[in-house]
Amino acid sequence: MRILSVVGARPNFMKIAPVVSELRRVSEVSHRLVHTGQHYDDKLSGTFFDELGLPEPDLNLQVGSGSHTWQTAEVMKRLEPVLEEFRPDLVFVVGDVNSTLAAALTAVKLGIPVAHIEAGLRSFDLTMPEETNRKVTDTISELLFVTEQSGVDNLKAEGVSEDRIFLVGNVMIDTLLQHRAIAAKSRILEKLGVKNGEHIRPYGVLTLHRPSNVDQAETLERLLQAINELGQEIPVFFPIHPRTMTRVRDLNLDHYFGGSRNGSPTGLQELAPLGYLDFLCLMDNSRLVLTDSGGIQEETTALGVPCLTLRNNTERPATVEHGSNQIVGVDPVRIVSAGRHILRTWSRSSRRPPLWDGQAARRIVEGVLQKRLCDSAQRGHEQRSSVQLV
Ligand code: UD1
């Protein structure tokens, strides 16, 4: 069985890693990994391959940045000859980035079935580019691997037949559970000046990169102002995505970043993007995470660390129902008050959504192989029937 997996942007790498490692254990599978090159900075891409033990991609399409249409079209143009040459039996795509949509479309147009990992999530907000990517990818994918019950419900409500839907758990959490102990050895807390011996000073973590939060000057400034206010109580570390960094510089918002008092960091602390292990260690020891990322809502839930989501919706409601996530929107007063409340009443949550147990990739690979067996049994049956007819 020939399988080709496509990845392109930072959150794809931790999702595909456990799947690749499961596939490598199956002798009848020949697997290829293609990187579209949507993310190309070492800090957003190369580092993750090293830390997650992912094999070098067999091919990098080196697409790079551009408008959504350009990026999607360019991935399709460059991927088509690769699929024609390798002729996989199945293409795996993960998540909801432009590379996910582009790879799924290309495969389906060549008649190659697609398996979508992290299917069914819906924010019901079509202004998010990822929502279009999710809906189209799910519509055209044959196998839909789902992380949480809401995904199953959404797909059924859209009329998807049940035999395409597999609730398997969360591959991102497989990776997190596999790497948590190694991440605990990171020296990032000492480097940032919050750990001395066994003592860790309370701190928070912020990430922001959604266009809806960083492209509008007023929204971005109000967010930085609010978090700067929380930063007066505990330092808040902010590893900045390149898209956000460009906006902060263009809008001259650097004055919201803090400095240090008596050698200790205070306020909002600007950092370069971190690698997987350093960031996992930083989240795992923090009092509070503020984010607009989808994956970080899931990771904080798995870690039991309180998370405030700086958006008006989430496509991952299990992180609220079964986890440590709260949706607080972008109103500064609400953010500061929710943040202060968490700091006053802090506790770690031990709740986790069903099947977020580190076994999702195994279930996916077993599901695919089982489907393959059913399909060949079905083909055998059809062949026998046609022989009888003749
Ligand atoms: C993409 C995904 C988003 C995901 C995020 C994780 C889409 C629509 N968006 O958003 O869902 O949450 O990745 O990071 O696919 N850039 C660099 N270096 C890089 C890559 C990008 O500097 O290696 C800069 C470029 O200026 C680029 C901008 O970041 O224009 C945005 O990159 P892009 O891949 O288009 O989207 P992200 O915002 O990263």
Any overview of this molecule?
The chain is α/β, with parallel strands linked by helices. It folds into 2 domains: 2-168 and 359-389, Rossmann fold (3-Layer(aba) Sandwich); 188-344, Rossmann fold. The chain is 47% helix and 16% strand. It is built from 16 helices and 17 strands. The chain has helices at 10-23, 46-52, 68-86, 98-109, 129-140, 149-157, 171-183, 188-191, 211-214, 217-230, 242-250, 276-284, 294-303, 318-321, 332-344, 360-389, and strands spanning 2-7, 30-35, 59-60, 90-94, 114-119, 143-146, 165-167, 195-196, 199-200, 204-207, 236-239, 260-261, 264-265, 268-271, 288-291, 307-309, 325-327. The strands form 4 sheets. It has a 7-stranded parallel sheet, sandwiched between helices. β2, α2 (46-52) and β3 (59-60) form a beta-alpha-beta unit. α4 packs parallel to α5 (129-140) and α7 packs across α13. The longest helix is centred in the C-terminal third of the chain and has 30 residues, at 360-389. It is globular. The model is unreliable at 386-390 (pLDDT under 50). Bound molecules: uridine-diphosphate-N-acetylglucosamine. Uridine-diphosphate-N-acetylglucosamine (UD1) is lined by residues 9-11, 38-41, 44, 65, 96-98, 129-130, 209, 241-243.
What would a concise description of this structure say?
The protein has 16 helices and 17 strands.
Helical segment tally? 16
Q: Strand percentage, roughly?
A: 15-25%
Question: Which secondary-structure class do the elements indicate?
Answer: alpha/beta
**Any idea what the CATH architecture of the largest domain is?**
3-Layer(aba) Sandwich
Extended strand count: 17
Helix fraction by DSSP (H/I, runs of at least 4)? 40-55%
CATH topology of the largest domain: Rossmann fold
- Name given to the CATH homologous superfamily of the largest domain: Glycogen Phosphorylase B
The kinds of small molecule bound in this structure are: uridine-diphosphate-N-acetylglucosamine
Overall shape = globular
Rg calculated over all Cα atoms: 22 Å
Could you report the average pLDDT, rounded to the nearest whole number? 94
- Catalogue the unreliable spans: 386-390
Measured distance between first and last alpha carbons: 30 Å
Number of separate domains: 2
CATH class of the largest domain: Alpha Beta
What's the arrangement of strands in the largest beta sheet? Answer: 3-2-1-4-5-6-7
| Biggest beta sheet summary | 7 strands, parallel
